């Protein structure tokens, strides 16, 4: 029988023990890298732009959930 359980990931493993500022810091660093990749890519690379947009949307969604709900829901 198949069943789903909703859990909330409130930490980031080893990074959570060293301070809560590291996860948002790495998120901002990754977002900056994604923006740099988007700006430096050629205009005809639509698949790359789509992939970067999807990655950015997921990262921003997780960051918002961590800020508002203090965790990310997983199934």
How would you briefly describe this protein structure?
The protein has 3 helices and 2 strands.
Task: Explain what this protein looks like in three dimensions.
The chain is mainly alpha-helical. The chain has one domain (7-74). It has 3 helices and 2 strands, in the order βαααβ. It has a two-stranded antiparallel sheet with strand order 1-2. The longest helix is centred in the last third of the chain and has 24 residues, at 46-69. The protein is flat, with a radius of gyration of 16 Å. The model has no long low-confidence stretch (mean pLDDT 80).
Number of strands: 2
Taken together, the total number of domains comes to: 1
User: What structural class is derived from the secondary structure elements?
Assistant: mainly alpha
Show unreliable segments: none
Percent in strands: 5-15%
Question: Please, what is the average pLDDT?
Answer: 80
Share in helix: 55-70%
Number of helices: 3
What's the overall geometry?
flat
End-to-end gap: 16 Å
- The side-by-side strand order for the widest beta sheet comes to 1-2
Radius of gyration: 16 Å
The ordered string of helix (H) and strand (E) elements is EHHHE
Describe the oligomeric state of these chains in a short phrase: single chain
Biggest sheet overview: 2 strands, antiparallel
């Amino acid at each position: 029988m198949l069943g789903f359980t909703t859990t909330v990931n409130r930490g980031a493993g080893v990074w959570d023990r060293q301070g809560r500022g590291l996860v948002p810091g790495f998120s901002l660093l990754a977002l900056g890298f994604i923006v740099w990749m988007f700006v430096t890519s050629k205009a005809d690379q639509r698949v790359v732009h789509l992939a970067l947009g999807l990655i950015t949307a997921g990262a921003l969604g997780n960051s918002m959930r961590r800020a508002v709900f203090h965790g990310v829901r997983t199934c």
